[in-house]
Design goal:
six-stranded parallel sheet; 9 helices; 2 domains; alpha/beta; 253 residues; Rossmann fold
């Protein structure tokens, strides 16, 4: 049995591949979502601790993991790496495509959230911010949005709205929905909200990163990008679905 960590565009690609190969799998996400599985998949949701993941592997006779969750799911990365290495089971990581780092003076790369706060206060104080970093980051950026008008785009889910409410973020400054898939739509949003600085993650092209950069550049708006975290060395990286399929051949697992 294969354990798939998904909830992303890459997760959907893994589902398609495993259905094509007629391989049974369990598709796992942290929070409950609507997911279209076919003949060979079953679904579960909920966060794993190292202990519960180890128990799940044993109870379900998991033979390997395909890891296709969000690149910024750092706690999950470490949990998967430690537990699967302990069980001597392989982890195949389906990678996203990432645009090359921009050299534009309006594109700023940082490593951590404290760096974001420092940069915002140093260079963009009193600027109207659009946060595209997800609802879980609202609390981390409280020091800025408490004193500077800010908007955050989050998923249109009650669970996401509840997290924003818990952080005391103004509901009128939430933008509910998925990332735009066209530069023109992203430009229209920035203009509508009169955005003066954009904050996002290095989430790859499936996270519409190229679109966000292009829209900001088109309007001459600074964009701050939090660099993607490194992955545990235990993971075997698949650059695309074809490479992942080659990993799944019986001779390799």
């Amino acid at each position: 049995m294969i354990l798939v960590f998904g909830g992303t565009t890459e997760g959907k690609k893994v589902i398609q591949l495993l259905e094509k190969l007629q391989l049974p799998y369990i598709y796992s996400t942290k929070t409950e979502i609507t997911v279209a599985l076919k003949s060979y998949g079953t679904y579960r949701f909920g966060a794993f601790s190292e202990e519960s993941l180890s128990q799940f592997i044993a109870e379900n006779q998991i033979t390997y993991c395909i890891h296709a969750s969000h690149p910024f799911a750092t706690v999950l990365h470490e949990t998967i790496a430690r537990v699967f290495e302990k069980h001597s089971l392989p982890v195949f990581r389906l990678q996203r495509e990432y645009p090359a780092h921009s050299t534009s003076k309006n594109v700023h790369y940082v490593s951590e959230y404290p760096d974001v706060i420092s940069l915002l206060k140093e260079k963009f104080s009193k600027k109207r911010l659009l946060g595209l970093t997800g609802v879980q980051t609202i609390e981390k950026l409280t020091d800025y949005w408490k004193t500077n008008l800010s908007y955050f785009r989050i998923l249109d889910r009650q669970s996401s709205i509840d997290i924003a409410v818990k952080s005391n973020f103004p509901l009128t400054q939430l933008i509910l929905g998925y990332p735009n898939t066209k530069v023109s739509e992203e430009i229209a949003l920035y203009r509508e909200k009169k955005i003066e600085v954009v904050l996002t993650k290095e989430s790859g092209n499936s996270g519409s990163l190229s679109i966000k950069i292009a829209a900001a550049e088109s309007l001459g708006i600074p964009i701050i990008i939090i660099k993607k975290p490194s992955l545990p060395p235990y993971f075997q990286l698949a650059a695309n679905v074809s490479v992942l399929e080659s990993f799944l051949k019986p001779s390799k697992i």
